[in-house]
Amino acid sequence: MSKPNNLESLWMPFTPNKTFKKDPRIIVKAKDMHFTSDDNRQILDGTAGLWCVNAGHGRKKIQEAVTQQIEELDYSPPFQFGHPKQFELANRLAEIFPEGMNHVFFSNSGSEAVDSALKIALAYQRARGHSSKTRLIGRERGYHGVGFGGISVGGMVKNRMYFGSMLSGVDHLRHTHNPSVNAFSQGQPEHGAELADDLERLVQLHDASTIAAVIVEPIAGSTGVLPPPQGYLKRLREICTKHDILLIFDEVISAFGRLGKATGSDYFGVTPDIITCAKGLTNATIPMGATIVQDYIYESMLENADAPIELFHGYTYSGHPVACAAALATLDIYKEEGLFEHAGEQAPKIEKAAHSLKGTKHVIDIRNLGVIAAL
Ligand SMILES: Cc1ncc(COP(=O)(O)O)c(C=O)c1O
User: Fold this and answer.
1) What would the pLDDT profile of 58-97 be if each residue is shown by its tens digit?
2) What tens digit of pLDDT does each residue of 308-353 get?
3) Which end of the chain is more exposed for a tag (fewer CB within 10 A), N or C?
4) Ligand 1 test: best mutation among 253, 258, 286, 291, most atoms within 8 Å of CB?
């Protein structure tokens, strides 16, 4: 593939454009675990792209499924029409997501899956007659994509500070990062379960009758890999249940094998009310996001909504047939090749290798869980 001769017109996302364009890094091919650069170097894709190519690059089965789908049905409108593969995919996801989570709303990215989850939480509280429950609680250092909902509940300063006042009625739990007691923990750190009690502080401040939902990443990725302290997620679940607050797990990076299970919820043994996912859902071949909800949320919406359309929300490309075909082929690969289990088997090796760097100059902490590790 030839080099592009003019880099000027493209405004690159989350990239220092000026610096990049002086010394561009161009990828032209990918196969298995490697990229090929435009100067023909092989580059190990150690992060699976942006934590999304969970089954490796260039998977034939996905390519064939996508090609066949484009030939058969390239697009059909998701509002008021259905096509078989979106129902099939929803059923397949219901099989591998935690028990009781049998209803799936499709979108096109993690950011959209998050915004969909936040909107579903608000609409559900209203439908069940708790319309004062409108507050959303996120967590410091959380990343939930770049929609206005996601940055409002997110806790990354630069992602928020340029964009005005964002959503109102949002508050944040304290983050769980505490290297003074947890540095070099292998797997989940020992200290910090009590940080979940921070939700009690926010309940004291706002009253539970005003809080719709809490959203956290079960393992935070974007601010430097923060595995949850032992017992933290269970405690957060208990406090949410006690105060009738929905718990949303943003599993955009933790779903589809990253912790050796289909979901982080499964790995941690803690079931939320809503899960968001994207990335590994299609092995990143075609953009797709999904928001999976507990049966009681879907059923209550259908029963109590005050209009025939129960949820006034959706995207032109919700459940896009080509994305569904890619996702179904991806789920087949995960199953046939036992990739979730395989990731679980690799986890101790990755832990050992990562922690062997303890003592190296400038390394002040090493954190890991599943097939994730950070220095
Ligand atoms: C936890 C989490 N949520 C949401 C997102 C946003 O996903 P997307 O970039 O597909 O919008 C990401 C992306 O890294 C993520 O890690």
Assistant:
1) 999 999 999 999 999 999 999 999 999 999 999 999 999 9
2) 999 999 999 999 999 999 999 999 999 999 999 999 999 999 999 9
3) N
4) 253
Residue 70, amino acid? I
**Closest atom of ligand 1 to CA, residue 222:** 16
78 contacts 319 by C-beta, under 8 angstroms: yes
Model pLDDT for residues 219-268, shown as the tens digit of each residue: 999 999 999 999 999 999 999 999 999 999 999 999 999 999 999 999 99
Specify the number of domains making up the chain. 2
Length of the chain: 375
Look up the domain containing 299 and give its range.
Answer: 62-336
Whether 135 and 180 map to the same domain: the answer is yes
3-state SS assignment for residue 302: helix
User: Is 27 in the same domain as 108?
Assistant: no
- The 10 Å Cβ neighbour count of residue 357 is 11
Residues 291 and 246 occupy one common structural domain: yes
Per-residue 3-state assignment (H helix, E strand, C coil) for 95-113: HHCCCCCCEEEEECCHHHH
Q: Are residues 66 and 41 in the same domain?
A: no
* Residue 355: inside a domain: no
Q: How far apart (Å, rounded) are the C-alpha atoms in residues 99 and 264?
A: 14
Question: Does 351 map to a domain?
Answer: no
| Half-sphere exposure in the Cβ direction for 259 (13 Å, CA) | 25
- Let me know whether 41 and 156 are in one domain: no
> Which protein residues are within 6 Å of ligand 1, measured from CB?
50, 109-111, 114, 143-145, 217, 221-222, 250, 252-253, 278
Question: Are 323 and 282 a contacting pair, CB within 8 Å?
Answer: yes
In the beta sheet, which residues pair with residue 170?
Answer: 136
- Inside any domain, residue 354: no
For ligand 1, the distance from its centroid to the CA atom of residue 39, given in whole angstroms, is: 30
Asked whether 229 and 188 are in contact (CB, 8 A), the reply is yes
155 and 25 in one domain? no
Can you tell me the distance from the alpha carbon of 188 to that of 96, in angstroms, rounded to the nearest whole number?
24
Contact of 85 with 328, CB cutoff 8 Å: yes
* Structure tokens given for 322: 């080509």
Q: Which residue has the tokens 């209009």?
A: 307
